């Protein structure tokens, strides 16, 4: 089974950028589709972006298109989320997730989760 550990969260002003990383261990990383989800207080967990095993196919929720970029490095067992032009509504706990199948966009499609990293965007 794969274990996931996010890093890179923090506090940033609106309009700024943050880069999140998710390091995987304990499994064959290239066998997994990967995704970033987020959950704000009082809201449901929602998909941010997802990437297939090779990195060739990506998915973004409409509100993140053009601002966020998901990528992966199978040699480093790591998936990344570059977040630009951040807005206060992007404030949430961001989670990395993995599944042994094609890319999914629903949280219950993913069996493996990290602990999450807090991203706070101030006005």
Total count of strands: 11
What form results from the Cα inertia axes? globular
User: Beta-sheet strand percentage?
Assistant: over 45%
Runs in which pLDDT lies below 50 for 5 or more consecutive residues are: none
Write the H/E string, N to C: EEEEEEEEEEE
Terminus-to-terminus distance? 40 Å
Major beta sheet summary: 7 strands, mixed
Q: Give average pLDDT, whole number.
A: 96
Secondary-structure blueprint:
Layout: E1 3-7, E2 10-13, E3 18-25, E4 33-39, E5 46-51, E6 58-60, E7 68-73, E8 78-83, E9 92-99, E10 112-113, E11 117-122
Parallel strand pairs: 2-11
Antiparallel strand pairs: 1-3, 3-8, 4-5, 4-9, 5-6, 7-8, 9-10, 9-11
Structural account:
The structure is a single chain. This protein is mainly β. 0% of the residues lie in helices and 50% in strands. The protein is built from no helices and 11 strands. It has strands at 3-7, 10-13, 18-25, 33-39, 46-51, 58-60, 68-73, 78-83, 92-99, 112-113, 117-122. The strands form 2 sheets. Strands 2, 4, 5, 6, 9, 10 and 11 form a 7-stranded mixed β-sheet that branches. Strands 1-3-8-7 form a 4-stranded antiparallel β-sheet, with no helix packed on it. A hairpin with a 6-residue loop joins strand 5 (46-51) and strand 6 (58-60). The mean pLDDT is 96.
